[in-house]
Automatic annotation (TrEMBL):
Protein's UniProt keywords contain Magnesium: no
Reactions catalysed: alpha-D-ribose 1,5-bisphosphate + ATP = 5-phospho-alpha-D-ribose 1-diphosphate + ADP
GO biological process, one term: 5-phosphoribose 1-diphosphate biosynthetic process
Keywords: ATP-binding, Kinase, Nucleotide-binding, Transferase
Name this polypeptide is given: ribose 1,5-bisphosphate phosphokinase
Top class in the EC scheme: transferase
GO molecular-function term, one example from the UniProt record: ribose 1,5-bisphosphate phosphokinase activity
Enzyme Commission designation: 2.7.4.23
Functional pathway: Metabolic intermediate biosynthesis; 5-phospho-alpha-D-ribose 1-diphosphate biosynthesis; 5-phospho-alpha-D-ribose 1-diphosphate from D-ribose 5-phosphate (route II): step 3/3
């Protein structure tokens, strides 16, 4: 599912729906989002259509927020929370290549990433850590295996 972000449509790195802050707030006020939050100076929303897709029995993958995971778990008790982890050097290189943040912002983000990931895994045993340091195909195969294993246990 594509999330809605108050980021320029020209920004690279994610197939999200870009909207203005005003449009985002209007959508939120109309009830267009199942989940919404603010982070990194931006607003993010998960469209309400997720609820219908889940009712129809579909698996839905979203890019959420570590800081707002508890809110998502309360709304979706059967949620499979996966924390993508990345080697710090690999993450630094990816952020530099993306060219959306300054060097200072990247270093601050790396520090936050380390702190948040450790805290989240320590406080929430239902979260699965998935290393995304290797190539995308490996990460996707591991994620699909995790989802298949979870469904087999259900």
């Amino acid at each position: 599912m594509r999330r809605v972000i108050t980021r320029s449509a020209e920004a690279v790195g994610e197939a999200a729906q870009a909207v203005s802050v005003e449009e985002f707030e209007h959508m939120r006020d109309r009830g267009a989002f199942a989940l919404s939050w603010q982070a990194n100076g931006l607003r993010y929303g998960i469209p309400i259509e997720i609820d219908q897709w889940l009712l129809e029995g579909h698996d839905v993958l979203i890019n959420g927020s570590r800081a707002h995971l508890q809110k998502a778990q309360m709304r979706y008790p059967n949620l499979l929370a996966v924390l993508l982890t990345v080697n710090q050097d690999v993450l630094r290189q990816r952020l530099l290549a993306r060219n959306r943040e300054t060097l200072v912002e990247i270093e601050e983000r790396l520090e936050r990433n380390t702190r948040f990931a450790g805290d989240l895994l320590a406080s929430n045993p239902q979260v699965f850590a998935l290393d995304n340091s290797a190539d995308l195909q490996h990460t996707v195969a591991t994620l699909i295996g995790l989802m298949d294993k979870r469904q087999a246990c259900a």
